[in-house]
């Protein structure tokens, strides 16, 4: 045996499972129930969030933009009639799989194929008798890319499987979080507040946006936080009018507006918070608009309750912005689901959009979590009041989770 084989197949690091095995068993049951309702016989999961949800599997590299010889072909197969799943992976991740996942049936691609396991996966599923019906693929996931996905689909169909879009199966199951997941979200909220406090203490004339961001990340990591799925922005001055721009070496100047958008992360569960700071007293009209914008969260809190529909919540937002004269100053107002997220995006599957009927009938029920965004452009182009809180419903109540003041903080 080569020494690398000894490492791959005998090294036993202490497992770092995010949840007890009973939690994963309950998730598997929920997914299989949803598969049966959707007419899906086999579901093959390739999205990092889905693989994590069912097994705990997580890593730093998912081959999302890899060269052709290293396709993103690892994944997890679930059959509607079996209370187990199969993890398919490269042997190079054998130690990682034992470290992070609860998999009891992991199968490794032939060594000569490196990371290209598509044919092997199909052959194994045929041998299991799992390709006799409808196979759900996560066609709306970025992983794998179109070329790999089409290749895999062709192999499945050639083996007798009928391919359907199974993207929504796990995403819908994830909408209602378990008590263990809700506990992670509460921890993430505390971590986010610690990050905001670090930003408040770090913002000063002459300090760069990246220096502030570094202090935010240091504080959240020290509190038990993890990498956010999106690069967290610290923006100053008129840059705040472009809320998706990146922090740079731009130095913050006295008198500028500064926005800080963070996600506290615990076991990959994200809670989004953003706050607005002013380095010195702003002009009276700027302060007035900022105060009205911050008041939108009070309007939201006034109607929060379990069972609240997105339609009613959206109508509350529209009425508030209209009555206060902020409607014409708005950027985007609304929110989206918070939960598991991996690198590239923390925006969840469910969207609160006051101007859309999509998801309007959704309700805040036990285990649901959304952020709520306030985007209002301030006078004189000085910047944007861009603040976010997160709403979490545990069944008995629906509340915002941050203890950090929502109003403009003057430094």
Question: What does this molecule look like?
Answer:
The chain is of the alpha/beta class. The chain folds into two domains: 3-174, 3-Layer(aba) Sandwich (Creatine Amidinohydrolase, Chain A, domain 1); 176-410, Creatine Amidinohydrolase, CATH 3.90.230.10. Helix content is 36%, strand content 19%. It has eleven helices and 15 strands. The protein has helices spanning 3-10, 21-38, 48-55, 94-100, 118-128, 146-158, 167-175, 179-202, 209-222, 284-303, 310-323, and strands at residues 42-45, 75-79, 85-89, 106-108, 134-137, 162-165, 234-236, 257-266, 269-278, 335-336, 351-352, 368-377, 384-393, 398-400, 409-410. Strands 4-3-2-1-5-6 form a six-stranded mixed β-sheet, with helices on both faces. A four-stranded mixed β-sheet has the order 7-8-9-15. Strands 12-13-14 form a three-stranded antiparallel β-sheet, with helices on both faces. Strand 8 and strand 9 form a beta hairpin. Helix 8 (179-202) packs across helix 9 and helix 10 packs antiparallel against helix 11. It is globular and about 70 Å long. The N and C termini lie far apart (64 Å). The model has no long low-confidence stretch (mean pLDDT 97).
């Amino acid at each position: 045996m080569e020494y690398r084989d000894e490492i791959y197949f005998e090294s036993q690091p202490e497992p770092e499972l995010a949840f007890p095995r009973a939690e994963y068993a309950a998730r598997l049951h929920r997914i299989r129930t949803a598969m049966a309702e959707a007419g899906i016989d086999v579901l093959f999961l390739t999205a990092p969030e889905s693989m994590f949800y069912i097994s705990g599997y997580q890593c730093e590299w998912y081959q999302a933009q890899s060269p052709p010889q290293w396709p993103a072909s690892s994944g997890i197969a679930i059959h509607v009639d079996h209370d187990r799943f199969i993890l398919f992976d490269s042997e190079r991740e054998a130690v990682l799989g034992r470290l992070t996942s609860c998999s009891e049936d992991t199968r490794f691609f032939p060594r000569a194929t490196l990371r290209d396991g598509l044919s092997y996966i199909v052959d194994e599923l045929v041998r299991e008798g799992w390709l006799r019906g409808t196979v759900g693929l996560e066609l709306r996931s970025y992983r794998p890319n179109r070329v790999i996905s089409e290749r895999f689909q062709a192999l499945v169909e050639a083996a007798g499987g009928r391919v359907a879009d199974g993207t929504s199966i796990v995403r819908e199951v994830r909408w209602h979080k378990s008590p263990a997941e809700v506990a992670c979200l509460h921890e993430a909220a505390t971590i986010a507040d610690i990050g905001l406090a670090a930003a408040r203490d770090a913002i000063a004339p002459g300090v760069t946006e990246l220096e502030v961001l570094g202090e935010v990340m240091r504080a959240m990591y020290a509190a038990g936080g993890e990498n956010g799925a999106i690069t967290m922005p610290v923006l100053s001055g008129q840059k705040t009018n472009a809320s998706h721009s990146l922090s740079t070496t731009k130095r913050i100047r006295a008198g500028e507006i500064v926005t800080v958008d963070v996600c506290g992360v615990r076991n990959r569960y994200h809670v989004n918070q953003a706050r607005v700071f002013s380095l010195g007293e702003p002009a009276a009209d700027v302060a007035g608009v900022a105060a009205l914008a911050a008041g939108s969260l009070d309007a939201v809190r006034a109607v929060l309750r379990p069972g609240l529909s997105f339609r009613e919540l959206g109508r509350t937002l529209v009425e508030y912005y209209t009555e206060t004269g902020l409607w014409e100053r708005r950027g985007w107002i609304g929110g989206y689901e918070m939960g598991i997220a991996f690198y590239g995006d923390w925006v969840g599957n469910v969207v609160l959009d006051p101007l859309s009927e999509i998801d309007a009938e959704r309700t805040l029920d036990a285990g649901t979590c959304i952020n709520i965004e306030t985007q209002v452009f301030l006078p004189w182009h000085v910047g944007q009041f861009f603040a976010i809180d997160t709403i979490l419903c545990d069944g008995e109540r629906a509340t915002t989770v941050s203890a950090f003041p929502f109003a403009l903080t003057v430094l």
